[in-house]
Amino acid sequence: MDLIQIAKETLQIEIEALEKMTERLDQNFLDAVSLILNTKGKLIITGVGKSGLVGAKIAATFASTGTSSFFLHPTEALHGDLGMIGKEDTLLAISSSGESEELTKILPHIKRFEIPLIGLTGNKDSSLGRYADVWLNISVEKEACPLNTAPTASTTLTMALGDALAVALMKERGFEKEDFASFHPGGSLGKRLFIKIKDLMRTEDLPIIDEQTPLKEAIVVMSEGKLGNVLIINDQKKLTALLSDGDLRRALMQESFSMDEPAFTYATKAPKCYHNTELLASEALEIIENDRIQLLPITTEEKKIIGVLHIHDLVNAGIKSK
Q1: How is the chain split into domains, by residue range?
Q2: Residues 126-148: what's their mean pLDDT?
Q3: Mind telling me which residues the site (Catalytically relevant) is annotated on (predicted)?
């Protein structure tokens, strides 16, 4: 058989399983959302084999979207990790058959703790189905596996149901992108929403000269500073100009060019600068991109230099403009 056709049939079987799941969503789903929403402790996910792998992913999704959650393997639970379960927690157990041996062994202990149990199983009359306070039906007519044995359609459906629960809880909690970013500070959204100018600006060994410094000396300072720019200050230590490598190239085209002239002569006067170090780095990048500059001097309100922000530092930090 054509492998492309096999792939299409596999996907179609899983699509149909998801479609049937959407048709049978009922009050039980709402009850599960309510149980989790009212959980004062943690949501603990458990399962064995492929169900366990899916459960670990579901736990990670919950944890990153505002629901405190972790995965607990049933075997580890039987050997001491039951102590990780508290009286204010809720357990979500996954087993297609509802009879996974390792899982069913911990169910009586879960009931002893008198904590809510949400059972994801395809068999309501199974051990898990009977113990569950809320049953979510994850049965499928058939697996995509040609032997109808390897968990395929059932694991896809279970993972999607976990996503549905997580998204519903996000909506109920009013979980916004700022909340998501706070759980993902290393991601692009977290960087865009939390990293500020003060976190990235350079404050030491800045290439600063005064207005009387000859151009030939300014070039040496520019090379040593490795920023492609030189900051120029007046007698009051206030920023008055900025000499960039672009300014230097333009100066070379002038007939009156002289290396002995003050660098101030060829510099950009009153350059763009910023003084609010609490400004988001992503917003600073917008300023740099819009003004087509490489270096943004950071100053006090009196124009005294406290640091610089280079476009390369922003790019290397993974900052992106909005």
Answers
A1: 3-175, 197-316
A2: 92
A3: 50, 102, 143, 184
The burial of 23, by beta-carbon neighbours within 10 Å (0-12 exposed, 13-18 middle, 19 or more buried), is given as: exposed
- Longest CA span, the chain: 94
Neighbours of 96 (CB within 10 A): 25
Confidence category of residue 188, pLDDT binned at 50, 70, 90 = very low
CATH number for the domain whose boundaries are 3-175: 3.40.50.10490
What is each CA distance from 281 to 80, 196, 200, 273, in whole angstroms? 47, 5, 8, 14
- For residue 150, what are the CA distances in angstroms to 9, 102, 142, 293? 15, 19, 10, 58
What region does 301 belong to: left with phi over 0, alpha with psi -120 to 50, or beta? Answer: alpha
Residues placed in the known binding site for Zn(2+) = 73
Residues 6+ apart with CB under 8 A from 131: 107, 108, 110, 111, 117, 119
DSSP conformational letter for 69: E
* CATH architecture assignment, domain 197-316: Roll (3.10)
31-67 per-position pLDDT tens digit: 999 999 999 999 999 999 999 999 999 998 898 888 8
Binding-site residue ranges = 73
- Please choose, from the candidates 317, 314, 305, 304, the residue with its C-alpha nearest in 3D space to the C-alpha of residue 283: 314
Cβ–Cβ under 8 Å, residues 273 and 266: no
